[in-house]
Specification:
The longest helix is centred in the middle third of the chain and has 17 residues. Strand 3 and strand 4 form a beta hairpin. The chain is an alpha/beta fold and 146 residues long. The strands form two sheets. It has a four-stranded mixed β-sheet, with helices on one face. It has a four-stranded mixed β-sheet with strand order 5-8-7-6, with helices on one face. It is 22% helix and 39% strand. The chain folds into two domains: 57 residues, Signal recognition particle alu RNA binding heterodimer, srp9/1; 63 residues, 2,3-Dihydroxybiphenyl 1,2-Dioxygenase, domain 1.
Length: 146
């Protein structure tokens, strides 16, 4: 739960074509995001060709997908971010995304990079699959920065 005075983001919502939320589309979405990130479908929230909710580790952290006649479209680098505690955790997600990409060329990966900022070394990569927004996985390393 959020601490008083410290609100936090808890979900992202995207509109998608209804066809993406049919049984085949939902299965592809769940397969990728569960295998790579460990997210789970909340089947009590699923309505065929209308909506789907992917729980991202806790019930109050999720990705909400809703069918629309004019669904969201985003340029390749539009994304939402997910922070990890270690670079090894980031590397594990990247390895899973690459492995999945080997089976499904629809997986779009922007390779890992590290940026140096005053007091911070930021390492990240992006991955997208079927949804209009990519996921950027970030590791904030304050200790390594000079």
């Amino acid at each position: 739960m959020p601490k008083p005075g410290r609100p936090r983001f808890n979900h992202v919502a995207m509109s998608v074509p209804a066809d993406l939320l049919d049984a085949e589309g939902r299965s592809a979405i769940v397969d990728f995001y569960s295998e790579v990130f460990g997210w789970q479908e909340l089947p009590t929230e699923t309505v065929d060709r209308e909506k789907m909710v992917l729980m991202a580790y806790t019930y109050d952290q999720f990705v909400f997908l809703i069918a629309e006649d004019e669904p969201m479209w985003a340029p390749r680098l539009d994304h939402f971010g997910m922070g990890v505690a270690t670079e090894a955790e980031l590397d594990a997600f990247l390895a899973k995304a690459r492995e999945y990409q080997g089976r499904d060329p629809r997986v779009d990966i922007i390779e890992k990079k590290t940026e140096e900022h005053p007091g911070l070394r930021l390492t990240s990569f992006y991955v997208g699959f079927l949804l209009p927004l990519m996921v950027e996985v970030q590791f904030f390393d304050f200790a390594a920065a000079g």
